[in-house]
Amino acid sequence: MRVDFYQLSRDPPEKVLPLLARNTLKAGARLLVVSGDGEQLDRIGQALWEPKESFLANGRAGQPHEERQPILLSDQTEPANGASYVALADGVWREGEPAFERTFLLFDEMTLQGARDCWRMLGSRDGVDRRFWKQESGRWVEGP
Fold this sequence. Notes:
The chain has 144 residues and is an alpha/beta fold. It has one domain: Rossmann fold, CATH 3.40.50. The protein has three helices and eight strands. Strand 7 and strand 8 (139-142) form a beta hairpin.
């Protein structure tokens, strides 16, 4: 399992998720985007639909045809769309099944301590590949 920690210092999740979603789809995978904040999910869903010429189709969990969505937005880690990648947009780590092939934990200043605790906790587990990403000069670079 791979966990990518994304430190949001400049852009909010709704600006970062279209890039992660586009790369997920290019890799041939489906994405589940999780947040406990319904308004945040609304903003993310809107950002994925823009720009119109290169939109990223998405839908909400619990709505018709959720299983067909390449990107599913939910407040739970149940991948009704069969996603093997999950983005934790609200910066909150969630334990339990199912195990995802790849997890993106997006965190900001408000959720920094939780991300640090999660980094340490995952460091003690076998089979977890942790990576840290930060924004520098408008680009994402892998940190130490």
